[in-house]
Amino acid sequence: MEKLTVTIATCFLLCSVLLLPPPSSNIFNRLKSNLTTTGSYDSKKPREKLLGGGLLATEFDDESCLSRYHQASLRKPSPHKPSAYLVSKLRSYEKLHKRCGPGSDAYKSATVKLGLKPGNGSESVGECRYIVWVPYSGLANRIISLVSVFLYALLTERVILVDQRSGISDLFCEPFPATSWLLPRNFPLLGVWGLVTRSYNAYLSRADERLGIQVRVFDRHAGYLQHVMDQIVACTQRENLLPELSTQVTNTSRSKRLLKVVLVTSLHPEYSVKLKRMFWEQPTSTGESIEVYQPSEERVQQTDKKLHDQKALAEVYLLSLTDNIVTSARSTFGYFAYSLGGLRPWILYKPVNRTAPDPPCVKAVSMEPCFHRPPLYGCQAKTIEITPFVMTCEDSNPGLKLVDAPE
């Protein structure tokens, strides 16, 4: 456990840098020009730092996948450094994938045996063993399951193959050099990274501080609910994430004000509208300037709709770029966002009887996502054993999550 410190959050980081179109895309030249003229992409940085401290292979050129190199310019330096052992495991896996992946003799034999049926989950051909990822449920659930399968492949020396019928190739670039992870089917790669960079440059880049608020209502009358709005305000003000309102106008000049941008993601626009109106109608007690931005307002979850999934993935990435984040209980969308950003979130407790709970939220003990249904081995299993590395989730019981071992 100490030697191979691989976590789900690490795998999220690996996925995070694969959101770009190829250089043939029309958006490529526009993005490259913008990032160059604004100076946000520093090509002089060591390639290792641009690629997550060695988490990603250096064989790809800069233009093969924009986010592979440009994502480092949008983030603050991470305090989490990958171990040399982890980096060596990743390099070994890439060699295995090239030897056994699409185009190899072993793969040609395997595709006959595997087919594209969900029932064929894990198979082997000669020295090469495979595990096939098949999409299920909404976008965040799919991404969490995808990185979990990759982690399993890494630990068991299997080759991950991805069923792309859900359009995964519309969201991610190829992660491994000189090979592919896709089962046969061709899709064009589109510009998720364009959605990210346009929003970042227009709304987030100017901020002195960025707060993400992810709102997901699990209610048959889902939509705008006043008690949820009350809970969001109570949490953010109690935890000093947003300032209290004042009845007096401060004399602080605009040039000296701290600008805090609040990024709200929700299917419904009313939560961001209420926040925006709140900080427009009254000044803040601290003199801070608060701007509220919501990228989309889809109203209804539209899983498997290409543009909807692309917007969702872009919003997850934008949330991961914030300094602090508040997420809804049991939301895999929120899990994906804060794990990707390496952030410990404030989790909103699930309301009971349509009443805002008190306290309204709790600070998570780690950046790892919660697994709502942990496996119970054997029909006789009655309890889940807790170890120094595992605890029950703050927002789901009997869910489990990874934590740092006590000193």
Total domain count: 2
The profile of the biggest β sheet is:
6 strands, mixed
Q: Count of DSSP E strands?
A: 11
Uncertain runs are 1-5, 20-41, 116-121
The order of strands across the largest sheet is 6-5-4-7-8-9
Order of H and E elements? HHHHHHEEHEHEHEHEHEHEEEE
Query: What class would the helix/strand composition place it in?
Result: alpha/beta
Number of helices, where a helix is a run of at least 4 consecutive DSSP H or I residues: 12
Gyration radius from CA atoms, angstroms: 22 Å
The end-to-end span amounts to 15 Å
Please characterize this protein's 3D structure:
- The structure is a single chain.
- This protein folds into two domains: 8-191, no CATH class; 206-365, Rossmann fold.
- It has a six-stranded mixed sheet with strand order 6-5-4-7-8-9, with helices on both faces. Strands 1-2-3 form a three-stranded mixed sheet, sandwiched between helices. It has a two-stranded antiparallel sheet with strand order 10-11.
- The two termini are 15 Å apart.
- The protein has twelve helices and eleven strands.
- The chain has helices at residues 8-16, 26-38, 47-50, 66-70, 84-100, 105-114, 139-156, 192-204, 226-238, 270-281, 306-320, 332-341, and strands at residues 122-125, 128-133, 159-162, 209-214, 259-265, 289-293, 324-328, 346-348, 361-363, 390-392, 400-402.
- With 407 residues, the protein is α/β, with parallel strands linked by helices.
